[in-house]
């Protein structure tokens, strides 16, 4: 692990290991394995990374999407804190911090000698600007709802004092997702000005995004000189690129049928890490007929999740019965709740007044595996008299229609974040689940005095949302990273889609 990993945050920092918010991928130093091939590490190497997730733009508060997180988080931009592969909070741009006795005021001391890629020195004004950008009304950051900030003061250039509107046990954890940017920077949708170990070299839309080692970096230099993210439209093209050495590593393998060719070849290594990405059949719980809990339970029971997972991923991935993956502290195996049972599904539909079934439109993103899953769901629900009309839309259309305007009856979507169960406590979130007890539990958990208290409350939320079939959690994605055997130090886990590149070493 590089010098990026500094002293662990004190009291509230370490407490937030088990808190809410959105997770992130490991530092490469803990993964990637070592190469058995000969040769020496090339400090001037170019590491070519293959991905299916090109950024929509380069601003994570303006709908940049999964791709911008994968390429820029930790590589180009840094936060006051960072998360390790184990989910621990560590100091990064914050040298240290103190918390008031009432838990409402956080005072951060910034690390000295940090410069942006433009050459400007990091100051408290930049931190204030970055926080305000995330919580602004026009921000598209999913994290802004977790940051209930009342006031931000900057007593001097290295001190930031943040006052919260109410106590938040997860505040430091949440700050690890806030990129600190130059407050004077312009056009951040196409350019950048971060403090990370790489600076943006070039972005060719539809093709590639390249990063160069930043020679003015405050910490240990990146282990490689250049990183290029190459973007592909489908898994077959991505795998062909790896086979022909056009890329050195694939961030997330989406074609399990293609894995054997890599497993049987000593020139490659197949890594099966931990994922927090859930595939959801998300109901609009404020739209009929999904206002009725029995209808939601019936639909969940009518779909054979195990068969779907097998058809899409073969022997990879896991079944989940709730929004909580096994890596979250409040995990409980709830796969038996609303489990596959066609007879039960028909009975519930009859009790809800839909003995003859009903029809609804399923808004489906146009990239894999959503179309495949939608077709499977349509055939499964037809067996209990439910007619599904599949409406295929682009990611941009999904964001506007579903996430922003809530103009849908049901949708498919992958949720990549860890510890995101808390969104069911927000009745204004796009799926519209509104249970007063759940909302209260989530609020109490956020203001808990200890992580043990928080965990017990969120276990209650987990079970209640599962029993209510607030959504249908189809399965947990596997996290399969395939790499050349010449590579070492790449991230293994898919927590939040980040892909730290600075520890990757490549044999010459």
From TrEMBL:
The keyword Amino-acid biosynthesis does not apply. It is a lipid-anchor. The lineage of its organism: Bacteria, Bacillati, Actinomycetota, Actinomycetes, Kitasatosporales. Keywords: Signal. It is found in: Cell membrane. Residues 88-418 form the Solute-binding protein family domain. One of its GO terms (molecular function) is peptide transmembrane transporter activity. GO terms for biological process: peptide transport. One of its GO terms (cellular component) is periplasmic space. Belongs to the bacterial solute-binding protein 5 family. This is ABC transporter substrate-binding protein. Its main location: membrane. It comes from Streptomyces apricus.
